[in-house]
Amino acid sequence: MELETGYTSWQVDIRIYNDYTQHMFSINDTQSKCDTQLEAISAKVAFERAPLACAPHVPGVDILRGCRVGCLFCPYKWRGVNAGSCQLKVDILDVLESEVSTRKRNGNLAEHVLFNHFSDSFPQNPSARSLAYEVLKVLLENGIKISMKTRGVMPDGFKDLFKEYSSSISVEVDFFTMDEQLAKLYEPCAAHPQLRLDTIRTLLSLGVEVKAGMGPLIPFINDTTGHMEELVRHVRSAGATKAVSYYLYLAKGMLESFEENLPVAHFRLIKGAFRRRPWQQVGIYQMYKFLPVKVRTEGYERLGKIAKASDLLLTVCKCKDPSLGVSCVDKVPDKVHGGDESGQLSLFSVA
Questions:
Q1: In this structure, are residues 134 and 155 in contact, taking their beta carbons and an 8 Å threshold?
Q2: What does the alpha-carbon distance between residue 341 and residue 302 come to, in Å, rounded to a whole number?
Q3: What is the pLDDT of residue 350?
Q4: At what angle do helices 126-141 and 92-106 cross, to 10 degrees?
Q5: What is residue 97's predicted lDDT score, i.e. its pLDDT?
Q6: Mean pLDDT, residues 307-321 taken together
């Protein structure tokens, strides 16, 4: 891969470390950014159009507009979803109950929804957390299956509900890295990686289907063999047997945020990796830049070998890598990114 910095890979590692440690003084200031108040808004609808291009038949139900986890690599805030303060749809429970009743009468009630796809499914704020519980309860009691994602901690108050409806819930617990300081840099308000491992353990003990999300992978930052081996080892020790991954892709405005919030060496690596990459339309509204296919393929192969050696079933998310992935919502296909007998990946389905 061509690097704007001109460094060799080992020189890059040294430069990142030196620049990274100098940047640490500002990371301690991020906690205040995670404690912003929620703004109350009204919900226009409960069931919204499918948020994922790879699962056009699965609508979304979101209690929040915006996300307080603050991941630098999140593409949604650059579409205006996270603009301004984080907002709580305080009346969504009433709207949801009304829509469920109407859809039941009309025979078009959704069988499956994505919950809080544009924010974290386990909100830190007590009011948001309580509302999330009540909305989940209505959905599950009406026979609707739920897929959700989190970089947070499983609330104790959700346990009985999740145990009762365990066969109807699928949770992806996402990780950028197991390195605490690197995680604070890229996902400043997410739960500590070790706490997310506890979330995996808790969900599995309740009988809930769990996948470990590994991403986004960024060349020379968290896609090294060492980072991959450590993450695979930890999620397997927590009991996860399935994982999904993808490489970083750029939405408009994201590179400017990287320049503002990352150490210089990190920013230059990312900028160099995407240099001269074209914008591509994904779905109806989204325009993204993707890393070269060769870079992504080699990274997936490396991660696939590591995962296979640990009996971890690995797929690549088509929603975030349309040309190399498979759906990250529907049932896992027979062929997955786990490697054949030679250790090579067995599937690269082109969309």
A1: no
A2: 14
A3: 29
A4: 10
A5: 98
A6: 93
The backbone region for 39, taken as left when phi is positive above 0, alpha when psi lies in -120 to 50, beta otherwise, is beta
Q: 314 has which bridge partners?
A: 243
Closest CA to 254 of 285, 289, 214: 289
CATH assignment, 9-316: 3.20.20.70
The tally of CA atoms less than 13 A away on the side-chain side of residue 43 is 23
Chain mean position to CA 343: 26
Return the domain boundaries, the chain. Answer: 9-316
If phi > 0 it is left, if psi is from -120 to 50 it is alpha, else beta; for residue 18 that is alpha
Q: What is the pLDDT of residues 73-122, one digit of tens each?
A: 988 764 444 444 689 999 999 999 999 999 999 999 999 999 998 899 99
- Average pLDDT of span 232-248: 97
Is 181's pLDDT higher than 50? yes
When pLDDT is cut at 50, 70 and 90, the band that residue 4 belongs to is very low
Instruction: Name the one residue in this structure whose structure tokens are 């690269």.
Output: 348
Q: Which helix (H) or strand (E) holds 166?
A: none
Contacts of 209 (CB under 8 A, 6+ apart): 166, 169, 170, 171, 242
DSSP line for 76-109: GGGGTTT-SS-EEETTHHHHHHHHHHHHHHHT--
CA dist., res. 63 & res. 113, Å (int): 13
- Mean pLDDT for all residues in the chain: 84
Sign of the C-alpha dihedral computed for residues 287, 293, 297 and 298 taken in this order: negative
pTM (predicted TM-score): 0.85
